[in-house]
Amino acid sequence: MPMAGQQQYALHTSSDKVYAPAMIAGNPSLMSGVPELVVLRLLAQQEMYGYEIARALKLGSRGALDLGEGVLYPALHALEARGLLRARSQRVEGRTRIYYALTARGRRRLERLIENWRHVSAGVELILGAAGHE
Amino acid sequence: MSEQRFRDLREALLRRGVAPRYAHRAEVEIAAHHRDLLERALARGESAEEARRGADVTIGTDDVLIERFAGRKELQSWSHRFPAAYGLAPILCFGCLGIALMAAAAAATHAIWPVPHDAARISAGLAADINLALIALFLWILPLSLAAGFAVLAYRQRIALRWPITGIVLLCAVVALINVGFGVKGGPKPLFLQAGIGFGTKMLPREFALALSKAVPALLPLFWLKYRSSTKFRSGPKHPPTFS
């Protein structure tokens, strides 16, 4: 379990690597692309701003995924720099909101990530199932 | 976190090479996020102090935020990756713009006084005025505007001062060797529009003085922005030595 205040995940979109220190210290590639996958998946449904994304990730995963604000914003900016997201700003109740939405390229990337994830998780399930029957 | 702290965060990001658009957006987003966290905590019944402390913890420290942003190559400004570009860009821009403006001036001359040139229609006074305007445009207004433009860019991206200084001084040195002219002379084609570059060893002191006379006003915007930057963020967090 991650300690209180400790960053649970860090998203590195340039190398598509994610590190969850307590869980995968010896095998960071296991979680490769997960934060990118979930952020893109959330934004495929509707455009959202940072605070909404952070809350949706936490609530949607029942607390299992908590990227942390210090990780979320650099990740969002990097995804936008790579052309996977589109950003627009809007003034709402006296504060500027930056809304993010998926681009066509982001949608294609999301499809590939979902496919990869299902492939990997099916493999893991098979192993877990086989181990459970021993 | 105060508004000043978010401004200081943006300043620190710029000094670490984060592109201005991302540094500015980070300031806006994180400030709004912080306010959202505060409001939510207050709505839950927390005291103002508890709410502020909780929001600060959730957002994280400046050092962590800066490292996260600065660690991403996608978010780095081009000038941070290639600062030496500032050494050559002013002169390249001057060359491109100078050629384009000269071509436009030649086209305008040709349109107003078609071949064969009717020099008789141009008074000596008008020719002298056009000549003066060309000299002012090519040898003063264009290089000084370029120098000011690159000074603003360098300030926005908080790059080391040595690169824009090199570029501006180089530009002024080259401009000091350039001549442009417009006038009327004898012969079958009495109207002339010309530009050239060159130097003579006997003329070097004069050309050096000319370069200096251009470099001083050309560098003023850069030093003014540097002064403004140093006074504006003197009390901010510790920054690495950039734009200094």
What is this entry, summarized?
With 134 residues, chain A is an alpha+beta fold. Chain A has five helices and five strands, in the order E-E-H-H-E-H-H-E-E-H.
Task: Please tell me about this protein's structure.
- The complex is a heterodimer of chains A (134) and B (244).
- By secondary structure, chain A is of the alpha+beta class.
- Helices cover 51% and strands 18% of the residues of chain A.
- Chain A has helices at residues 21-24, 34-45, 50-60, 69-81, 104-132, and strands spanning 10-12, 17-19, 48-49, 85-92, 95-102.
- In chain A, strands 3-5-4 form a 3-stranded antiparallel sheet. In chain A, strands 1-2 form a two-stranded antiparallel sheet.
- In chain A, helix 2 (34-45) packs across helix 5.
- Chain B has 244 residues and is mainly alpha-helical.
- Chain B is built from 9 helices and 2 strands; from the N terminus they run H-H-H-H-H-H-H-H-E-E-H.
- In chain B, helix 2 runs antiparallel to helix 3 (48-59), helix 6 runs antiparallel to helix 7 (124-157) and helix 7 runs antiparallel to helix 8 (162-175).
- Chain B is elongated.
- The two termini of chain B are 27 Å apart.
- The relative contact order of chain B is 0.13.
